[in-house]
């Protein structure tokens, strides 16, 4: 496969996702990874459900507010 066809394929993928969608994907990925790391770091007995709780909150909420962070801390 040539370099030009690889570049065209990559630019096609990037042009399909808007900036808002890319931000939501990045927020979701970082949020779930951070929650999983923190749950394992503090040795929480239910650490295996931390990604599920976090994903539920982050997926349902379109915009991140301080209230969402507070809800996650309470959970």
The secondary-structure class comes to mainly alpha
User: How would you characterize the largest beta sheet?
Assistant: none
Tell me what portion of residues adopts beta-strand conformation: under 5%
Number of H- or I-type helical stretches = 4
Helix content: over 70%
* Count of distinct strands: 0
Spans where pLDDT lies below 50 across 5 or more residues:
none
Mean pLDDT: 78
- Write down the overall geometry: globular
The radius of gyration is: 17 Å
Topology as H/E string? HHHH
Distance between the termini: 49 Å
Structure at a glance:
By secondary structure, the chain is mostly helical.
Structural summary, described in words:
The chain is an all-alpha fold. It is 76% helix and 0% strand. It is built from four helices and no strands. Helix 2 runs antiparallel to helix 3 (50-60). The chain is globular and about 40 Å long. The mean pLDDT is 78.
What layout of secondary structure does this protein have?
Blueprint: H1 3-16, H2 19-41, H3 50-60, H4 66-74
Helix pairs in contact: 2-3
What descriptors fit this protein?
mainly alpha
């Amino acid at each position: 496969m040539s370099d030009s066809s690889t570049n065209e394929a990559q630019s096609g993928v990037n042009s399909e996702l808007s900036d808002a969608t890319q931000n939501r994907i990045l927020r979701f990925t970082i949020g779930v990874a951070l929650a999983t790391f923190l749950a394992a770091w503090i040795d929480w007995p239910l650490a295996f459900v931390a990604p599920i709780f976090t994903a539920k909150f982050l997926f349902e909420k379109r915009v991140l507010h301080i209230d969402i962070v507070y809800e996650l801390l309470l959970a």
